[in-house]
């Protein structure tokens, strides 16, 4: 560009002479050429810039084309990603539903287990109560059986005493004031009279056994009353022979005393009380009457008092009757 100079075109009609004779025009031409060169020199940077811009535009176009292809691939990847996200969301929702169902099933099973445990506790509590009631009723039944046995023994003893007393009264009524004895019978009476001291320990042992039986009976009755007090029952139910009915798990426990035995006891007590007066009369008659015994060649009669062992038996029977009447 620096070597470029403007050379005006030479026409056919121009000549060196005209240039020689027109120096102003020549100067104008040179100045116009220089201005044109300057204008061309000013246009060159714009051309470079234009080329650069074209290169940039081409590169940008290529980049846009590449970006379009990458955008399409990215769109495809985005669609795939969205589809995978939807699938994962569906799977997660299904998993959540399954988890919720499992949680509900576990909650129901837990509630069922708690209800079963509560029912088992109630059953164990009811079983313990039934065992306790059964134990108390067994103890009560045992106490009642023991009391019944003691009562039977007392009734038997009372019957034996009453029968012995009646037999003794009958024998005393059948006796006469005068008794005729042989020597052998007299010796037997003497032996019996000598055996009286041996009968006293037997009677005392019998009295002690009876007192021990009464003490056992009283302790049994006391224990029975305590058991009924513990079961919130009145102790009068034991002694009056009232039927006690308790409904527990559709079971009834009926405890009654036999009326026949009580009637027998009353009859025997009345009989004994009735024979008490006759015993007193018999004692008075025995105190007034004496046995007269005289010895002859054929028969020996000896005057002697009767043995007092019967009196001891009568006193014992009277004491027993007094105790029974006091008990009643």
Strand order of the largest sheet: 1-2
Assign the structural class, choosing from mainly alpha, mainly beta, alpha/beta, alpha+beta, or little secondary structure.
mainly alpha
Low-confidence stretches: 1-15, 233-307
Number of helices: 7
SSE order in H/E notation? HHHHHHEEH
Percent of residues in helices comes to over 70%
- Strand percentage: under 5%
Q: Roughly how many Å is the radius of gyration?
A: 72 Å
What global shape is seen?
A: rod-shaped
Mean pLDDT: 67
Give the N-terminus to C-terminus distance in angstroms: 163 Å
Kindly report the oligomeric state of this protein. Answer: single chain
Query: Biggest β-sheet: count, sense, barrel?
Result: 2 strands, antiparallel
Characterize the structure shown.
This protein has helices at residues 16-21, 23-174, 183-194, 196-230, 236-239, 259-288, 309-327, and strands at residues 294-295, 300-301. With 328 residues, the chain is mainly alpha-helical. It has a domain at 107-174. The longest helix is centred in the N-terminal third of the chain and has 152 residues, at 23-174. Residues 1-15 and 233-307 have low confidence and may be disordered.
Task: Summarize, please.
Residues 99-140 form a coiled coil. With 328 residues, the chain is an all-alpha fold. Helix content is 79%, strand content 1%.
Keywords:
328 residues; disordered N terminus; 7 helices; two-stranded antiparallel sheet; Protein WEAK CHLOROPLAST MOVEMENT UNDER BLUE LIGHT 1; 2 strands; coiled coil; mainly alpha
How would the blueprint of this fold be written?
Blueprint: H1 16-21, H2 23-174, H3 183-194, H4 196-230, H5 236-239, H6 259-288, E1 294-295, E2 300-301, H7 309-327
Helix pairs in contact: 2-4, 2-6, 2-7, 6-7
Protein name: Protein WEAK CHLOROPLAST MOVEMENT UNDER BLUE LIGHT 1
Coiled coil: 99-140
Organism: Anthurium amnicola
């Amino acid at each position: 560009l620096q070597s470029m100079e403007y050379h005006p075109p030479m026409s056919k009609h121009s000549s060196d002479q005209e240039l020689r004779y027109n120096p102003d025009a020549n100067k104008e031409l040179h100045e116009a050429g220089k201005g044109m060169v300057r204008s061309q020199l000013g246009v060159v940077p714009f051309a470079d810039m234009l080329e650069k811009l074209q290169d940039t535009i081409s590169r940008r176009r290529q980049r846009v084309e590449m970006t379009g292809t990458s955008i399409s691939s990215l769109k495809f990847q985005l669609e795939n990603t969205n589809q995978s996200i939807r699938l994962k969301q569906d799977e997660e929702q299904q998993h959540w539903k399954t988890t919720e169902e499992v949680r509900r099933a576990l909650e129901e099973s837990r509630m069922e287990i708690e209800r079963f445990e509560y029912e088992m506790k109630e059953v164990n509590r009811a079983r313990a109560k039934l065992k306790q009631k059964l134990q108390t009723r067994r103890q009560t039944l045992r106490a009642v059986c023991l009391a019944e046995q003691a009562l039977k023994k007392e009734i038997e003893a009372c019957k034996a005493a009453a029968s012995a007393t009646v037999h003794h009264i009958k024998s005393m009524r059948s006796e006469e004031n005068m008794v005729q004895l042989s020597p052998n019978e007299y010796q037997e009476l003497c032996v019996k009279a000598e055996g009286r001291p041996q009968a006293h320990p037997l009677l005392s042992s019998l009295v002690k056994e009876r007192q021990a039986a009464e003490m056992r009976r009283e302790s049994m009755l006391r224990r029975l009353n305590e058991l009924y007090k513990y079961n919130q029952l009145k102790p009068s139910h034991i002694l009056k022979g009232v039927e006690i009915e308790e409904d527990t798990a559709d079971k009834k426990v009926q405890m009654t005393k036999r009326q026949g035995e009580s009637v027998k006891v009353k009859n025997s007590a009345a009989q004994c009380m009735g024979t008490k007066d006759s015993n007193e009369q018999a004692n008075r008659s025995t105190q007034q009457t004496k046995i007269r015994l005289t010895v002859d060649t054929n028969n020996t009669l000896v005057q002697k008092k009767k043995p007092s062992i019967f009196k001891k038996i009568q006193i014992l029977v009277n004491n027993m009757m007094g105790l029974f009447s006091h008990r009643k």
